[in-house]
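To: structure subgroup
Subject: Chain for Friday's discussion

All,

I'm putting the inputs and outputs inline so they're searchable in the archive.
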Amino acid sequence: MFDAVFDPDVEWLDHVQPVGLVVAASLLKELGLAPERQTQYETSEVCDLLAPEPARRVLPEPWLLFADILGWSAAQVAGSPGGPPIGEELTRRLPEYGTTLAPDWAVRAAGDEAGWQLLVKIERPGIDPDQRGALEGWEATPHSGSSAFCASWTSRQAY
């Protein structure tokens, strides 16, 4: 029988599927990247932001989560309420698909006025990221649209 050693710093990895970005627990430990523990109070704050119908657990106002809970500043997030606009440099035209891909928000890299560290796409409630044709004008899955957008960058400026 296998005796697993419980490590609270990486235990959360057992609750996510290894799809997309995959991170090794040993690397997280080596770099000291343990997430902060969420308290019961913080869980309650997040629940207050969710739609009241349990069957539709969505964020009616996503920015409240990022600003009030995560502490993001609108000045650092292009496209956010009160933030700067999304610039043309963050859009990608895919002529072979007849569509243009763009993030809803873009988070500036700390200490670097020219770079972006995170691009955020917010889908409407009820959109299945793995359902083909779920988005108007895009035959593939919403998830593949995000992948195509990321692949369209040719330099590290988007990371």
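Points worth raising on Friday:
The first strand starts at residue 77 and ends at 78.
The two ends are 42 Å apart (CA to CA).

D.
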